[in-house]
């Protein structure tokens, strides 16, 4: 388990799809109290229970890279040797921010491919 906690970040409750709720990606979950947390925490679906972004899992990511601070979160992918960077489509400038670019560089040290998803837009960045 991570020693970190999400604090005021609730960004995965927007950016991630939740199949059990038929919640699409890049739309706020109706049960999210934005910036505070899940209002149905005890009854939240299994995929919400299972999810941890890389920032939460790995204390090597600096605090300033907490997803709500950079409008993007990195997570595992089911394609071998790759990960996914979900970028908030409501923040189009996030993709060109120095922090997100530094994050992509850091991810490419561990993964050969980074899939970038932002709403309906997607891109593949490779080493
Ligand atoms: S994006 Fe990461 S830090 Fe933010 S709420 Fe989700 S798991 Fe926590
Ligand atoms: S059910 Fe709760 S944890 Fe899951 S996406 Fe909605 S607000 Fe987030």
Structural write-up:
This protein has 127 residues and is an alpha+beta fold. It has 5 helices and 6 strands. It has one domain (12-126). The protein has a 4-stranded mixed β-sheet. A two-stranded antiparallel ribbon has the order 1-2. The longest helix is centred in the C-terminal third of the chain and has 13 residues, at 98-110. It is globular and about 40 Å long. The termini are far apart. The mean pLDDT is 95. The protein binds iron/sulfur cluster (2 copies). Residues 6, 9-12, 52-53, 55-56, 66-67, 73 line the site of one iron/sulfur cluster (SF4). This is Zinc/iron-chelating domain-containing protein.
Rounded to an integer in angstroms, the radius of gyration calculated over CA atoms is 14 Å
The secondary structure category is alpha+beta
Helix amount, in percent? 10-25%
Biggest sheet record = 4 strands, mixed
Q: List how many beta strands DSSP finds.
A: 6
Strand content: 15-25%
Question: Order of strands in the sheet with the most strands?
Answer: 3-4-5-6
Q: What's the oligomerization state?
A: single chain
**What general outline do the C-alpha atoms trace?**
globular
Mean pLDDT: 95
**Bound ions, cofactors and other small molecules, one mention each:** iron/sulfur cluster
Low-confidence stretches: none
SSE pattern = HEEHHHEEHEE
Brief description of this entry?
This protein is of the alpha+beta class. Helix content is 24%, strand content 21%. α5 links the parallel β4 and β5.
